[in-house]
Amino acid sequence: MPVKTLNLNLWQLKYYRVATRFGLLAEACLALLLFPVLRGLSMFQLLNIEFAASIKYHVWFGTGLIFFSLVHGGSTLFIWTITHHIEEEIWKWQRTGRVYVAGLISLVTGLLMWITSLPQIRRKNFEVFYYTHHLYILFLVAFLFHAGDRHFYWVLPGIFLFGLDKILRIVQSRSEICVLSANLFSCKAIELVLPKDPRLNYAPSSFIFLNIPLVSRFQWHPFSIISSSSVDKHTLSIMMKCEGDWTNSVYNKVEEATNSEKKINNMAVRVEGPYGPASVDFLRYDNLFLVAGGIGITPFLSILKELACKNRLKSPKRVQLVFAVRTFQDLNMLLPISSILFNPIHNLNLKLKVFVTQEKKPSNGKTTLQEFLAQSQVQSIHLGTDEDYSRFPIRGPENFRWLATLVLITVLTFLGFLIGLSHFFIPSEHKNHSGVMKLVASGAMKTAKEKVPSWVPDLIIIVSYVIAITIGGLAATILQWRGKHREAPRMSKEEVIKPEERNFTELKPIPLIEEHEIHTGERPKLEEIMSEFEKNLRGWSSIGVLVCGPETMKEDVASMCRKWPQCFGVEDSGRNRMKMNLNFHSLNFNL
């Protein structure tokens, strides 16, 4: 509604203008909102920022968007109320200008998405969060009709790339691959082994998004990769802990195959990724201090596997792993790296401290970590057929040139349809010989006072966007089809470790006394462990401190790093003076 028709006094006019400025701030947040959640087209990877770390920017922009929108919408409704125009304006769909009812729809939709994304709801009811977040389509369409095409162009780049990124992920994940094998651990954790293209390399601590149609055709969940592409050329492994309905369903489906005659054949999954850091950043440190809690151990499994196969000249000299769990059964999650822990052939200077917080002693009576893991029970199930070892392996995201070509094709298509449809449906202005302004549209003459309805250019943007994204999806499908049919190295059964041959419990005894420690009934005292770790270092040392676990654990590790003396002399037994530099990194195992 024009300000002049509201008959506002001075303070009301100023307040109304402030409300309008808050709307512009919400628009700025929306312009940046979708960039952090891009996966295949992520710009944060150019800055070496992981996808999991960039999610926090999406949360910040989303919170800012809702706050500014609430102030903008609430203040506007307040002005309408005190001027007795609210019933007149709130439900009216204006022919030209801003559509206020669309703004109300956008505000309510955005608020609903924000509430269901709060950690208290998202972690306990992920399905509610997941399905509610798909209301973003209604939110963006309502915003377009409310703000108009001119304001929408400011936020269009992020929306455009997000739509194309979504299409790319659909194209990548439309092919189903079959799980080769599964390993069920007694701690209600499950390891899935998937086939991958041997040319696909990924950095440790990477993750994938997984969909299992047998459980749900629509739900996608992120899982850390526990394998290393330097070691496992043809397979990729993930581990999930049963802490929700979806993961429990996966565990039960696989477990049923071992307890009944009805065997699951060709357990099909869809995969997005892998996504992760652009480089192996942890190799630049002289030493590593790793802290994990529960299922947070999964990123470190891939890191330790990578370190075990690296040249010792380029790897950290010492590695301290602190692993905190609730029960002894949770220690079974260390089985994938049991050969690294107890086999000296890997030549990895690794020391492990385990803290079991809720139990005093294991039920099997074993006192050492090696004895406990040797008695652990693992059910290994072979799910793949002969064809599954080379059929539709995980290929990973495409290269930069491929993505740049696709973006260029889609942008040119969008601009072409936008210009063409605008020229056809929106009349153009020109002057006749008498100097009278006329509008020509579809062969009919109109006066200059007549305006095109505001929904016409809005619909043109939507139609052009849908056509461009569709053509981009077709181009991506064709390009991927051509790449898939190129000759790729095939793997055979002999090149893949079969589940029958992966006997986790066959641990060879080592001649030295086991250095790994188990502490029961207590939590790790990080400062004491770091002090002990520091005593074994000589000279200047850079230490990479990586943590993955609950938020309280991350806060404790960050607090320790802030308190610890950094970049200045620390007494070393009264003889030497050494320098330490602690570099804190937080890894996420859930998004």
Explain what you see.
It is found in: Membrane. Its main location: membrane. Residues 163-281 form the FAD-binding FR-type domain. It is a single chain. By secondary structure, this protein is of the alpha/beta class. Among the domains are: 158-174 and 400-487, no CATH class; 177-393 and 501-586, Rossmann fold (3-Layer(aba) Sandwich). The protein is built from 16 helices and 18 strands. It has helices at residues 10-33, 51-82, 86-89, 100-116, 119-122, 126-132, 136-147, 149-173, 245-259, 298-309, 338-342, 369-374, 400-425, 455-484, 526-535, 551-563, and strands at 177-178, 181-185, 189-195, 207-211, 221-224, 235-241, 268-275, 287-293, 318-325, 350-356, 378-382, 428-431, 437-441, 444-447, 517-520, 541-548, 569-572, 576-586. The protein has a seven-stranded mixed β-sheet with strand order 15-10-9-8-16-18-17. A hairpin with a 3-residue loop joins strand 2 (181-185) and strand 3. Helix 1 (10-33) runs antiparallel to helix 2 (51-82), helix 8 packs parallel to helix 14 and helix 13 packs antiparallel against helix 14 (455-484).
Strand order of the largest sheet: 15-10-9-8-16-18-17
* Biggest sheet overview: 7 strands, mixed
Tell me, briefly, the overall form: globular
From the alpha-carbon coordinates, what is the Rg to the nearest angstrom? 29 Å
Name the CATH architecture of the domain at 177-393 and 501-586. Answer: 3-Layer(aba) Sandwich
At the fold tier of CATH, the topology name of the domain at 177-393 and 501-586 is Rossmann fold
Structure classification: alpha/beta
Number-wise, the strands total 18
Question: What name goes with the CATH superfamily of the domain at 177-393 and 501-586?
Answer: Nucleotide-binding domain of ferredoxin-NADP reductase (FNR) module
- What's the CATH class of the domain at 177-393 and 501-586, please? Alpha Beta
Keywords: Membrane, Oxidoreductase, Transmembrane, Transmembrane helix
GO molecular function: ferric-chelate reductase activity
Subcellular location: Membrane
Domain FAD-binding FR-type: 163-281
